[in-house]
Amino acid sequence: MEYYILDETAGNPDIPYIEELPEQLDMIGVVMGNKLSLDIPIRLPVNIQDESEVGYPDMLTADVPLFSEKLKNALDDLGIDTIDYFPVELYKKKSGETVAQYYLGIIRELKKCLMSGIESSPSGRRILKNPVIDATLTDGKMLFRLYEKPLLIIINSYVKEAIEKIGLQGVSITKTEDYVGL
């Protein structure tokens, strides 16, 4: 089984910038898959200078993982039941106008499943370099977070093929063996 990292496309300056997260939204709790009690919809302020220049991708991951309805529905259709979704409204801070709707995705599965790929830099920092996942340690889950680097969202080849077919915008899929990061 091949595995991939699901993320937003890096370096896109035209996506909305989320200014601040509400206190009720604990970033560490979200990444670790903790159950959260949230007031919904969650409203997140964005700073938009020129609406005509803004693109709304199918996934935002800079602060917390936000999925478009298109991506959420695709994952639901695949039978992925390891994500708790909460509706999110992105709104212009100045006017309060809602400009986009997403779903916060809290991924409950955190898997310790690397066969190889953890190295140390000369300074002693841990580096994840070309990680190889042991499929026997994933419990057959199609989507999960990696225990060794919980910010990463891992999908298997079945999920990759399915979501590639629906033409998502602003989404990156990288083979785990091609990944290098701190």
Please give a structural write-up.
With 182 residues, this protein is mainly beta. The protein is 13% helix and 41% strand. It contains three helices and 14 strands. The strands form three sheets. The chain has a six-stranded mixed beta sheet with strand order 2-3-6-7-5-4. A five-stranded mixed beta sheet has the order 8-11-12-1-13. Strands 9-10-14 form a three-stranded antiparallel beta sheet, with no helix packed on it. The two termini are 25 Å apart.
Features of the shown structure:
single chain; 182 residues; six-stranded mixed sheet; five-stranded mixed sheet
Shape: globular
Strand order of the largest sheet: 2-3-6-7-5-4
Strand content: 35-45%
Order of helices and strands: EEHEEEHEEEEEEEHEE
Helix coverage percent: 10-25%
Alpha-beta classification: mainly beta
**Biggest beta sheet attributes:** 6 strands, mixed
- Unreliable spans: none
pLDDT averaged over residues:
92
* Oligomeric organization of the protein chains: single chain
Number of helices: 3
Give the end-to-end Cα distance, rounded to a whole number of Å. Answer: 25 Å
Number of strands: 14
| Radius of gyration over C-alpha positions, nearest whole angstrom | 17 Å
List the helices and strands and how they pair.
Layout: E1 3-8, E2 17-18, H1 27-32, E3 42-47, E4 59-60, E5 66-67, H2 69-77, E6 83-92, E7 98-107, E8 110-111, E9 114-120, E10 126-133, E11 143-146, E12 149-156, H3 157-164, E13 171-175, E14 180-181
Parallel strand pairs: 3-6, 8-11
Antiparallel strand pairs: 1-12, 1-13, 2-3, 4-5, 5-7, 6-7, 9-10, 10-14, 11-12
